[in-house]
UniProtKB/TrEMBL annotation, chain A:
Neddylation of cullins play an essential role in the regulation of SCF-type complexes activity. GO terms for molecular function: cullin family protein binding; ubiquitin conjugating enzyme binding; ubiquitin-like protein binding. Transmembrane segments: none annotated. GO terms for biological process: protein neddylation. InterPro entries: DCN-prot, DCN1-like_PONY, EF-hand-dom_pair, PONY_dom. This is Defective in cullin neddylation protein. Residues 36-227 form the DCUN1 domain. One of its GO terms (cellular component) is ubiquitin ligase complex. SUPFAM superfamilies: EF-hand.
Automatic annotation (TrEMBL), chain B:
It comes from Tetracentron sinense. Keywords: Ubl conjugation, Ubl conjugation pathway. One of its GO terms (molecular function) is ubiquitin protein ligase binding. This is Cullin family profile domain-containing protein. GO terms for biological process: jasmonic acid mediated signaling pathway; ubiquitin-dependent protein catabolic process. It holds the Pfam family Cullin.
């Protein structure tokens, strides 16, 4: 048992098995406990998964959400998906499930629920947040060659991801995006630009914004729109 | 002891030539004789010195005989070479010094002290001159000391001693008085009085010669003199600046310049010239040359309401403008305020022309709003004139100075890029060009040289336009029209224009147009070949009368080619040509553009037959009436298989304009799709041959669209090319390089460049650097 507690302090998202004899050692020592854990994780998976497709589909996710008492539009579900490195929006495969839950050290639904606040804190750390932020964009690309996301969805995403931290910026940005006509979709470069903007530019005075620099044009337009409003 | 050993070894002082050696033999070496005592010998010296003094004072007429001189010289020699303790070289040296000092103290200083002003200077000059004579003579007497004594002991030579005496005793006492007196004289001369220039020069030579490297001159005379000059000219400037007109002030300044220059050449040291006249600022920013002082308030002068630069420009005042350039160019950055005013003036002039054209254009009829009318063309002509005028100003008055050229360029760039009556000036310029080069365009009266000159001016004006590619595109369209309807005055002028454009803006600018002109030449040759081909086979091809111009697709503007139903009469001819062409070339595909063709049709009207020159579409329309007398609009349209607009235009030209070859029912002025047309058998005209024109409307919007599209590609290509070479580049540098690269064709909008960069990022040609979001990387 002590050995498994040292496991907890290792990097959370790394794969459980590394080719070291130490792992084998405590595997064999606590292998029973580990096997039990894995079994429970799989069982949990099966309780939500679709019988025929073998993956958790949107229905299953909804059930999961109600069990952890979180809205399925809540950002924490997105964070869970990130932890799992889920590829397709609305679906979790077994591998992804295993990956995520192992990293959370959760094998029951209660443990999952309890792990969420810690997960949130972890994601909000600046080093992780950047990765999470760009993951969120990619996660929303449903078609194969899709490179852009429509404005409506972008607004929702912005609110979801940045609304708590940068609420004034997000409010104005959403207002702008909805009223302007130049852009019907947003690409990854512009999406990343929004985060940089919130982090770097003082708001609402926008004093340190320089349109001569490499900010995406959509943000130049946003700043112009803001300045007009302020006059 | 040899007889003449002493003298043969010695060198005589310059100027003394012994009349014969025998004399000197009398003067013997003294070693065997008795010793000369110091005081004894000195008495003789004193006698000589006294005589010298009297000569100098002018109280003794005469001079030293060579015997007297030799005696003194030998005495010194002997006294110096005696065996110790009677070797009196040191004492003699000291007494040499003392004698001079004594004389100065006794005679020179008192005299100087009691004189003033000019008299003082005169005396000083005399005394200085005398002193030099004295020292020279004494040095000759005591010359032997310089041979061994001073060198061996490391002491100053005799002439040096003499100079130091004067410096210590006379100069240091009188230097201020001398300086003041000279400055007084200078001031007097500035006021217009005559002064004794030679006197001043001589006095200053004292300052110069008394110490090396002009130390005394610079510190004790020049510095105060310059300060005095500063005061003088500062006052003069403030006195004149309000009352004088700008030209008068400049005249005064020039006179002052000349007089100061004169002053330097006559009596000041040449090193004073820059400090007095030209700009020099290495050491003191406070101290200004007289010139700079006069123009401290250059702006105030230039802006003078009734005589300032603007008026001089307006009236083209040669003398004053040239003088202004001369004077202001002598001060560092002195021309800057003038350049600013020049630029403002030219810009205002140009903007006035724009406004004038706008006013005239407001009277244009609504339907003519988009057409480049006469008033717009006149605007360009006037701009060209303006350009010529100011160019000549710059070359004639301002010595072609580059800063004025730059100002001119900036001024022209301002108003040449304004729209006139909603039409871009690039388009207007293209129209002016077109008029010049087409038959009946108004160039008929101009000689070849005049046409060439105007083309030259147009091309140089084009350099100021930002949207050169708009000009190029309109020119290309118009050139096509000129070439295809044979309305160009002259192939040579066309080529000349193209070569001028190529020279200025590069081959890419003109490559398509050159291709077009070449095409026409080749087409003519091909047609001649074709006609030979026909005449070689008259049996087969009798009656074929078709002339074809083959155009290379890439060079010419794109023409629409709707699915036209070709009249049967034409099809045969076309096939014959196609066969011929196919036999002469390979890998070519011919596409017939009927909208550009012309046809001669003979209309057998009742009164008489008339030959009509028509467009192919018009001809095809009329040929339909060979089969039936009456046709409706829709009949005609379906037979021809052309779009509505074309059919409307055509029927209008045949029934509602000058020649009513068809009768329209109802006989309204416009065509509607329900009209019916009948062949007008009663048609006649006094001319046997008529030309039925089809009005050509230029699709301006399309031109602008094409240009915009091209620009996007050009910007993309430029960005990719730059990034491919540089691999990594910051945003601002990329934008700057891009603008530079495209400058010859157009001035790209920064926003457009930004958008293209973003587009390239999305298409994964570029990416943002992970660490620094303002830097881009090329994605291979």
């Amino acid at each position: 048992m002590r050995r498994s507690s040292t496991r907890k302090t290792g990097p959370p998202n790394s794969a459980a098995s590394v080719n070291s004899s130490a792992v084998d050692l405590f595997r064999s020592a606590s292998s029973k406990a580990v096997i039990k854990e894995l079994e429970r994780i799989d069982q949990l998976f099966n309780s939500y998964a679709n019988r025929s497709s073998g993956v958790i589909d949107p229905e299953g996710i909804e059930a999961l959400c109600s069990d952890v008492e979180v809205e399925h539009t809540d950002v924490r579900i997105l964070m869970l998906a990130w932890k799992m490195k889920a590829e397709k929006q609305g679906y979790f495969t077994l591998d992804e499930w295993r990956r995520g839950l192992k990293a959370l050290r959760a094998d029951t639904i209660n443990k999952v629920k309890k792990a969420l606040p810690e997960l949130e804190k972890e994601v909000r750390r600046p080093s992780n947040f950047l990765d999470f932020y760009s993951y969120a964009f990619r996660y929303c690309l449903t078609e194969e060659k899709q490179k852009t996301i429509d404005i409506e969805s972008i607004c929702l995403l912005l609110d979801l991801l940045l609304g708590s931290q940068f609420c004034t910026q997000v409010d104005f940005l959403i207002q702008f995006l909805k009223t302007q006509n130049d852009y019907k979709v947003v690409n990854m470069d512009q999406w990343m630009g929004f985060l940089r903007f919130c982090n770097e530019i003082s708001f609402p005075d926008l004093n340190n914004y320089d349109p001569e620099l490499a900010w995406p044009l959509i943000l130049d337009n946003f700043v112009e729109w803001m300045r007009e409003k302020q006059c | 002891m040899g007889r003449s050993r002493v003298f043969s070894k010695q060198r005589f002082p310059v100027g003394i030539v012994p009349s014969s050696y025998s004399k000197y033999k009398k003067l013997k070496m003294n070693s065997s004789d008795k010793m000369i005592e110091l005081e004894e010998g000195w008495k003789v010296m004193v006698a000589g010195i006294t005589k010298l003094e009297l000569i100098i004072e002018g109280q003794f007429v005469g001079k030293f005989s060579s015997e007297e001189y030799m005696n003194l010289y030998t005495l010194v020699y002997n006294m110096s070479t005696q065996k110790p303790p009677h070797d009196y070289a040191a004492q003699l040296y000291e007494r040499f010094n003392d004698s001079i000092r004594d004389y100065i103290t006794r005679m020179v200083l008192p005299s100087l002290r009691e004189k003033h002003d000019v008299f003082f200077l005169r005396d000083l000059v005399t005394r200085w001159s005398n002193h030099n004579i004295m020292v020279r003579w004494l040095s000759r007497f005591f010359f032997y000391l310089d041979r061994f004594f001073t060198a061996r002991r490391g002491l100053p030579v005799l002439s040096e001693v003499g100079r130091t005496c004067f410096l210590d005793l006379v100069y240091n006492e009188i230097k201020d008085r001398a300086k003041d007196a000279i400055i007084d004289l200078i001031d007097q001369e500035r006021q217009g009085e005559q002064i004794d220039r030679a006197l001043v020069k001589k006095t200053l030579s004292m300052f110069i010669d008394l110490k090396v490297e002009l130390e005394l001159y610079v510190n004790d005379f020049e510095a105060p003199m310059l300060r005095n000059t500063t005061t003088y000219y500062a006052r003069k400037a403030s006195n004149h600046i309000l009352m004088d007109s700008f030209p008068d002030y400049m005249l005064m300044a020039e006179e002052c310049w000349n007089s100061e220059k004169d002053r330097v050449s006559h009596y000041l040291h040449s090193s004073s010239e820059p400090k007095l006249l030209e700009s020099y600022s290495p050491w003191s920013s406070e101290q200004k040359t007289q010139h700079e002082l006069l123009f401290l308030n250059a702006d105030q002068l230039l802006q003078k309401e009734h005589s300032g630069l603007r008026l001089l420009l307006r009236d083209g005042q040669v003398e004053h403008l040239s003088r202004m350039y001369r004077l202001f160019s002598r001060i560092t950055k002195g021309l800057d305020p003038a350049v600013v005013i020049f630029k403002e003036y030219v810009t205002a002039d140009g903007m006035a022309l724009v406004k004038e054209a706008e006013e005239l254009a407001s009277h244009k009829k609504v339907e003519n709003k988009d057409i480049v009318g006469l008033q717009e063309q006149v605007f360009i002509t006037k701009v060209i004139e303006l350009h010529g005028k100011y160019l000549s100003y710059i070359n004639d008055f301002f010595m072609g100075d580059i800063i004025f050229h730059k100002a001119l360029k900036e001024a022209f760039e301002v108003f040449c890029n304004k729209e006139v009556a909603g039409i871009s000036s690039a388009e207007i310029l293209a129209t002016v060009c077109d008029h010049l080069l087409k038959k009946g365009g108004g160039s008929g009266k101009l000689s070849d040289e005049a046409i060439e000159e105007t083309l030259e001016k147009i091309v140089s004006l084009l350099a100021y336009f930002h949207d050169k590619d708009v000009f190029a595109e309109f020119s290309r369209k118009k050139l096509a029209r000129r070439l295809l309807s044979d309305r160009s005055i002259n192939d040579e002028h066309e080529m000349s224009l193209l070569s001028k454009l190529k020279q200025q803006f590069g081959g890419q600018f003109t490559s398509k147009m050159e291709g077009m002109v070449t095409d026409m030449i080749l087409a003519r040759d091909k047609q001649a070949e074709f006609e030979n081909y026909l005449s070689d086979n008259t049996q087969k091809y009798q009656g074929t009368d078709i002339s074809v111009t083959v155009l290379t697709t890439g060079f010419w503007p794109t023409y629409k080619f709707p699915d036209f139903n070709v009249p049967s009469e034409l099809i045969d001819c076309m096939n014959i040509f196609s066969k011929f062409y196919g036999s002469k070339t390979s890998h070519r595909r011919l596409t017939w553009i009927f909208s550009l063709g012309t046809c001669n049709v003979i209309g057998r009207f009742d009164p008489r037959s008339t030959e009509m020159q028509l467009s192919t579409y018009q001809a095809a329309t009329l040929l339909l009436f060979n089969k039936s007398r009456r046709l409706s609009f829709s009949d005609i349209m379906s037979h021809l298989n052309l779009p509505v607009e074309e059919v409307t235009k055509m029927l209008h030209s045949l029934s509602c304009s000058k020649y009513k070859i068809l009768i329209k029912e109802p006989s309204t002025k416009t065509i509607s799709q329900t009209d019916v047309f009948e062949f007008n058998s009663k048609f006649t005209d006094k001319m046997k041959r008529i030309k039925v024109p089809l009005p050509h409307v230029e699709d301006k919007k399309k031109v602008i669209e094409d240009v915009d599209k091209d620009r996007r590609y050009t910007v993309d290509a430029a960005l990719v090319r730059i990034m491919k070479t540089r691999k990594i580049l910051g945003h601002q540098e990329l934008v700057i390089e891009c603008v530079q690269m495209l400058n010859k064709m157009f001035k790209p909008d920064i926003k457009v460049i930004k958008k293209r960069i973003e587009d390239l990022i999305q298409r994964e040609f570029l990416e943002r650097d992970k660490e620094n979001s303002t830097t881009y990387r090329y994605v291979a």
